[in-house]
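I would like you to help me understand the sequence and structure tokens below and explain how sequence relates to structure.
___
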Amino acid sequence: MTPDPRTWLITGASAGLGRALTETLLDHGHRVAATARDTTSLAPLKDIYGQHLWTAELDVTNTVRLRTVVDTAFQELTRVDHIVSNAAFGLYGAAEEFDDQSIRAVFDTNLVAPIHLLRAALPHLRRQRSGHFTQISSAAGQTGMAGASVYHAAKWGVEGFFESLHDELAPFHIGITLVEPGTIKSTFFNRLRVSEPLDAYQSGPVGELRRYLAQPDTVTANSVGDPKKMARAIIEAATAATSPRRLPLGSDAFTAIDEALTGRITEHRAQHATAQTTDH
């Protein structure tokens, strides 16, 4: 844990990993600008930590409100050293089961909102000539699983966007870290959206996943990630002299990503000869 107090802005701070980050930072003397759709649950922290906690209600899919909150936070707090883009939700089911609105909501929350959050913060971070942006991605940003195609697509999109920013923002001394957790003992699985099933997908891998997710308490109990331990790892990574580009968290995340990357490399190299035959 870094000994010098800093100011952090966190989205989705009312529960889960965002809440663990907020509490851990406050416990160690940092100042936190915590945002959430409903900040009611943050009130007890305000009573304890007073001026160290700044709160604002924010639905990250409301881009106009998002920009206003970011501008206000930088103005009232003078500077913000770290931004953690954490707000997200999961959507599960077969690809053809999803309705248009659900697909749009997944991308608006998990991909479009982080892009706009980064863009809203950049003018302030450039003026500071410093700052670090931590995007909470997922092991799902490096893997693929039947029954979660749209969620994976959004996370892969986030990975591509923030991967592209390292060299772009380096001249301004702004760092980027993608955090890739596996399963976490939190309320995430209680807030999942699961599509209405089509008969064709009652069996098979999608049906099996649907039946498993229908027991969110069991899914949470089987999750391996400790949000407090993950929070400490995120803080240490974001404040390190050289922050990692990617930070897998949880043994399940590390194994899943390692297997996916190894498989892709093997498949990629198998196409070496074919790739060469298509040169002009």
